[in-house]
Write a structure and sequence with these properties.
15 helices, alpha/beta
Length: 474
């Protein structure tokens, strides 16, 4: 930490002085801790200094820190189903939802790796994991402390190319404690080595594995109504893409029938999950809507790139690829496919209740458009936006009262949707900075951006990214 912060000393001193004298444009909205955190993150992520290769970034952000403290972790690995149905069903959905011309790789099925997280009571924060316990025994101990039927299927953030469930235990253990339930965190395949739809195939396999445990799984079947699909940032994107995939299965099933698929030797139904809980979800891979610039003063995310991802990182063994690709996650022509960028999905009928929890951040517009679209189509949407707060602020700036409030609201939604589903209704509020007073808003009127404007902006964004690599194709 010292090595990271020492070069930032001049910035830290200048930021503290400007904040104290109310010379910063955000002094009236932020405390000093928030101002320092955002400014430092902005400088570190903004391309200043020598950028690191994708390989190095992945190596640094996917290390397992070990297990200690108030958490139970039980790791699992499920073998590939004997049938290829899940994979083929996904490809069928992708083809059906094409606008025309989208190209994508067809990944092979891989064993699913994940870990269960539960709260461990009665130990210190430094207590090591008990030795000589099998993963099944750890799961048994985890379940003995579970107090609720809430099961979170959690997808971590990291722009689809960084991080690992092991690095998210501070998040999943908090959610396990606050909900009284358990969390299933998926080690989905990362880009650019595994472009779309590899991660989505892993997400779909994980969902079915919760419903219908494969041989050797420690858990009993979990009903769909108890599953809350959750994620932050890119994990929110994967959650929304998974829901759209399942909705597409239902849209194309015979009238009145639940779609079925062969999975580990059985013909099983594919129900809609109980809910989605999205934290600062990234829903537009083209990064095309106005809030990307209008809300930049409150955020640390880098602006939409004026450089090609093909040349933005030092060359390494995984990036750039040959032939060149417009984006780390997918080929350029697929950027506006509804399962790549859920912002492009128009039909959200029959969606379960969905929580959108975010700041006044650069991704706010894409979240507003989707939330509004779902509410207008009759879906239940809980909109919770925190004034002047940056992307994923509750993860990045812990210890603030606003972050504590965020976690309480997030966990409360997950508990209510499983334990009292009838109590959840469409509602929206903006939480004012510092005072944390809630101001009600109409979820059906969150944005003035029409579908036509959004489509045009996304198309222009896709074309811009494709031009940067000469319109390269897979």
């Amino acid at each position: 930490m010292l090595k990271l912060l020492l070069p930032q000393t001049p910035l830290i001193l200048k930021t503290a002085l400007f904040h104290t004298l109310y010379l910063s444009p955000t002094s009236s909205k932020w405390d000093l801790k928030t101002e320092l955190t955002v400014k430092i993150l902005r400088q570190m992520l903004g391309g200043e200094g020598k950028p690191q290769s994708i390989t190095k970034q992945q190596r640094l952000t996917t290390k397992d820190p070990g297990v200690k403290g108030k958490v139970w972790i039980s790791k699992v690995k499920f073998e590939v189903p004997g049938e290829d149905d899940v994979r083929q069903w996904l490809f069928k959905a992708i083809e059906e939802m094409k606008h025309g011309g989208e190209l994508y790789a067809k990944p092979e099925a891989k064993p699913l790796e994940a870990e269960w997280t539960g709260y461990r009571d009665g130990v210190s924060d430094t207590e090591p994991e008990p030795p000589n316990l099998s993963e099944a025994e750890k799961y048994e101990k985890l379940m003995k402390e579970v107090k609720s039927d809430v099961t979170l299927l959690y997808f971590h953030g990291g722009a689809m190319y960084l991080l690992d469930p092991a690095t998210y235990r501070h998040v999943t253990s908090r959610l396990a404690k606050m909900t009284g339930g358990k969390v299933f965190s998926v080690r989905y395949r990362l880009s650019p080595q595994n472009p779309f739809p590899a991660a989505l195939l892993d997400a779909l396999t994980a969902y079915l594995s919760l419903l219908y445990p494969p041989a050797g799984a420690p858990h009993a079947p979990i009903p769909a109504k108890s599953i809350v699909v959750a994620g932050d940032s890119a994990g929110g994107l994967l959650s929304a893409s998974l829901l759209q995939t399942i909705l597409q299965f239902h849209r194309t099933a015979p009238s009145g029938k639940t779609p079925t698929v062969k999975f580990h030797g059985r013909e099983v139904e594919i129900p809609i999950p109980g809910a989605l809980a999205l934290s600062s979800p990234w829903l537009d891979v083209t990064r095309s809507l106005p809030s990307l610039t209008e809300n930049a003063k409150y955020d640390y995310l880098p602006p939409p790139s004026t450089h090609s991802a093909h040349t933005a990182y030092p060359a390494c063994e995984v990036w750039p690829v040959s032939p060149p690709r417009a984006d780390l996650y997918c080929e350029g022509s697929a950027l506006t496919h509804p399962l790549v960028s859920p912002l492009a999905a128009k039909d959200w009928r029959n969606a379960p209740p969905i929580l959108f929890a975010l700041g006044e951040e650069m991704l706010a517009d894409e979240d507003k458009v989707i939330a509004q679209r779902i509410a207008r189509q009759g879906g239940k949407v809980v909109w919770l936006q925190y004034e002047a707060m940056p992307h994923c602020f509750s993860l990045m700036i812990e210890g603030l009262e606003v972050s504590r409030m965020y976690w309480v609201e997030f966990a409360d939604f997950c508990k209510r949707i499983v334990e009292m589903p009838g109590k959840v209704r469409t509602e929206g509020c903006i939480v004012t900075a510092k005072s944390l007073v809630k101001r009600r808003v109409d979820v059906e009127k969150l944005s003035d951006l029409t579908d036509e404007i959004v489509d045009t902006r996304m198309r222009n964004g896709r074309e811009r990214l494709e031009r940067m690599v000469g319109g390269a194709k897979l």
